[in-house]
Predict the structure.
Amino acid sequence: MFRETARRFVEREIAPHYYQWEQDARVPREVWLKAGEAGLLLCDVPEEYGGMGGDFRHSVIVMEELGRAGATGVFFSLHSDIVAPYILKYGSEQLKRAWLNRMATGEAIGAIAMTEPSAGSDLQAIRTTAVREGDEYVISGQKVFISNGQTADLVIVACKTDPKQGAKGMSLIVVETDRPGFRRGRQLKKIGMHSQDTSELFFDQVRVPVSNILATEGQGFALLMNELAQERLTQAVKAIAACEAALAWTIDYVTQRHAFGKPIAAFQNTQFKIAEMKARIVAQRVLVDRCIELHLERKFDSVDAAMAKMTTTELQCEVVDECLQLHGGYGYMTEFPIARAYADARYTKIAGGSIEVMKTIIARSLFAR
Ligand SMILES: Cc1cc2nc3c(=O)[nH]c(=O)nc-3n(C[C@H](O)[C@H](O)[C@H](O)COP(=O)(O)OP(=O)(O)OC[C@H]3O[C@@H](n4cnc5c(N)ncnc54)[C@H](O)[C@@H]3O)c2cc1C
């Protein structure tokens, strides 16, 4: 029943408008409000904080239905499954009451800012500082590539509370975007996902109360390591949904398009390519479903997440390439979803931890001794 609700919502409120949003380089705020009203945001947050009181599988359904429509720039999952859990698990009661309800209705949009111009994979090298002055932190620094950056009402900011200490000197602090000293920079031009407002953010002595810190001072890096497993699982879920969508569009296309007097689907090459992709996608689908089960049982760890994220995003890039090829010249035209899916796919091997970082995590677990 929930999938049906999500599917109808995406078919009615997102799919018909999505191409225009790509041209406009924005996802309108109204769609966030409508999604909130339909119960599609903060699915696994308890009802007492305004959420749906479901579990991670409800979030998965929302991601899958957005993926089915190729609506990759609508970042509900970042908001619901990455930002909200930090506040729910590590925020003060005051922070939870202030934000979760409004995030569930779509009135407030969340973002998380870790990456800086000179530090991405190497998060310990960030330079943004939070200096404690009485009951406040004073935050100064710069972030880049921040998803939902132009629309966010709150940003979880990774900063150094003790720059002399490496990982132990890092904290996560919630910054409301109406605070003096906060400034949004450019919405960055990307090769794909044009509707997503990936941006630069600037913090010039932004003062926030100390109660805005998540967990306690110095725990930021540990929190990130804990929560990145779920973030990477969301990426795997989105990657497999993107593969399934690309294959479905391609089967439709090759069935209708003719060359040399027969449908493209009648060529053995087409059938073999599609058969190969189908088998590989099903194998990864089984892995992702198993990862979701492990996550629900609280047995899913960072190494599982690295393996799932790496293999699914690599498959996504290969599948969209093969599917584009089967579309011929039309596959290169952005009015065709496969062309956009091709450009959109490329970032998945970089963001949220690159493929190389995933390999490092997996290798470290094997050679730890
Ligand atoms: C569309 C998009 C959205 C994003 N959204 C967000 C967001 O919302 N919030 C946020 O904080 N960040 C976001 N990011 C940033 C993203 O997480 C970083 O780009 C990513 O972590 C890589 O960091 P970097 O770009 O600094 O690359 P670098 O760290 O400079 O890496 C460059 C290359 O070196 C490789 N490399 C680095 N270290 C090693 C190593 N130890 N061994 C082997 N190879 C290595 C990398 O794999 C990569 O190939 C987003 C990025 C994109 C593209």
